[in-house]
From TrEMBL:
GO terms for biological process: proteolysis. It comes from the Eukaryota. InterPro entries: Papain-like_cys_pep_sf, Pept_asp_AS, Pept_cys_AS, Peptidase_C1A, Peptidase_C1A_C, Peptidase_C1A_papain-like, Prot_inhib_I29. SMART domains: Inhibitor_I29, Pept_C1. One of its GO terms (molecular function) is cysteine-type peptidase activity. Residues 33-90 form the Cathepsin propeptide inhibitor domain. Coiled coil: none annotated. This is Peptidase, putative. Residues 1-20 form the signal peptide. Keywords: Disulfide bond, Signal. Belongs to the peptidase C1 family. Pfam families: Inhibitor_I29 (PF08246), Peptidase_C1 (PF00112). Residues 120-358 form the Peptidase C1A papain C-terminal domain.
């Protein structure tokens, strides 16, 4: 997501206390651009750019501090690796769209208020699952618009874990580089097209270690291509007898996909409670400096809201915040653990879900507009 990123040393552990140099929302009093540049390892091409970034930074900082001081706000905004970007620059990296090339789903999940009279659990949180674990660690897509490939990969991982108890880390790069049907790699795509791609192959999705993520610095790496060339994994290991080690790889296949009734909080809640985590599309235009709390649609306060769907993520549960007195959806993002609540965001889940003026997109950030999930199957080991 960011332009010139320098990886900094991780905070050191001293006597069991983790100390991060990066300030939280309540530590922004007196925070300066000079410190931001150091804390976030920023590098600019010229003095002119430095001054432009400085202006952006202080404008944002002021608006964040005003937001955080407003007791009616239910979430906090903070500085992060996106703080020196213009909204336009940042939005250019949110690249999900709903493709007209989608095959129809194999099934559509509909739910009554309660399943056969049994109420849904009050809370579902796949982050807490341990046997089996169903979520891999939060990833970082970098400056590549591969959110859709991350979302699809997270779904394949979760459903494979739910059906086999094993949680391999799967290759996001394979989906980013190899999905056809008009996807454009780092220039955007649709998680459903990635389901269709895996569905169409005999080899399935391979693991991250065999086909690692390499598009982090797109587009700096190759301004002429939307993603790196789709690789035959066999070719990455020349002069090796494929079956000797391919037998050790998990191969995750797909046999159709399921959809959840769009814009239905009840169906989404019951799908989370009875099926599993969901790949969802959202309008993430106001997520840039989310740090913690329950994000509310500004439309609920009578202001203009952001309804244009531009990002794919994974919904991993729902719950209730007793302090704020708000129900929420739990959503996993692919902007690293530096962003939000360890890489996650909670979205307001009011009794009556907000909808766009044309009624096509509902839920905070439009999160209910189209949840879906793959039907995974285990493929036999074979070369790819
Ligand atoms: C990108 O395209 C331009 C114009 O066609 C060309 O000059 C340049 O060498 C290309 N760069 C790469 C990395 O392929
Ligand atoms: C998935 O593959 C099966 C078996 O080849 C096929 O019948 C089905 O239409 C495919 N579904 C999608 C969504 O591509
Ligand atoms: C990759 O290469 C191997 C060995 O040459 C071949 O058997 C396999 O079909 C290739 N995979 C694809 C997807 O083309």
């Amino acid at each position: 997501m960011q332009r010139a990123l320098t990886v900094l040393a991780v905070a050191c552990l001293l006597a069991g206390t983790a100390v991060s140099k990066r300030p939280k929302w309540h530590q922004l009093e007196g925070y300066t651009f000079e410190r931001y540049v150091a804390d976030f390892g920023r590098q600019y091409s010229s003095t002119e750019e430095y001054l432009q970034r400085q202006t952006i930074f202080y404008t944002k900082l002021k608006s964040m501090q005003a937001h955080n001081a407003d007791g009616t706000k239910t979430w906090k905004r903070g500085v992060n690796m996106f703080t020196d970007m213009t909204p336009e620059e940042w939005k250019a990296y949110n690249k999900a769209y709903k493709s007209p090339n989608r095959a129809p789903p194999s099934s559509v999940h509909v739910a009554a208020d309660q399943a056969n009279g049994v109420p849904f659990p009050l809370e579902v949180d796949y982050r807490t699952w341990t046997s089996p674990r169903v979520l891999t660690d939060v990833k970082h897509q970098g400056s590549c618009g591969s959110c859709w490939a991350h979302s699809a990969t997270e779904s394949f991982e979760s459903y494979y874990a739910l059906s086999t108890g094993m949680l391999p880390v799967l290759s996001v790069q394979q989906l980013t580089s190899c999905t056809p049907y008009g996807t454009a790699g780092c220039d955007g795509g649709d998680a459903v097209l990635a389901f269709m791609y895996i569905n169409s192959t005999f080899y399935g999705q391979t693991e991250e270690w065999a086909y690692p993520y390499s598009d982090f610095f797109y587009p700096e790496r190759n301004p002429n291509a939307t993603t790196s060339v789709c690789k035959n994994v066999t070719d990455l290991f020349p002069n090796k007898t494929p079956y000797n080690w391919f037998a050790d790889l998990n191969r995750i296949g797909c046999n159709g996909y399921g959809a959840v009734t769009p814009n239905s909080a009840t169906s989404t809640k019951s799908a989370l409670a009875t099926i599993g985590p969901l790949s969802i599309s959202v309008a993430a235009g106001n997520w840039q400096d989310y740090e913690s709390g329950v994000l509310q649609n500004t439309a609920a306060n009578g202001q203009t809201n952001e309804w244009s769907i531009d990002h794919d993520v994974q919904m991993v549960g729902y719950g209730h915040d007793a302090v704020l007195g708000l129900d929420y959806w739990i959503v996993r993002n692919s902007w690293s653990t530096l962003w939000g609540e360890q890489g996650f965001i909670r979205l307001d889940r009011p009794a009556v879900e907000p909808c766009s003026p044309d009624g096509t997109t509902c839920g905070t950030s439009g999160c209910l507009n189209g949840p879906h999930y793959p039907f995974v199957k285990e493929n036999p080991p074979q070369p790819f």
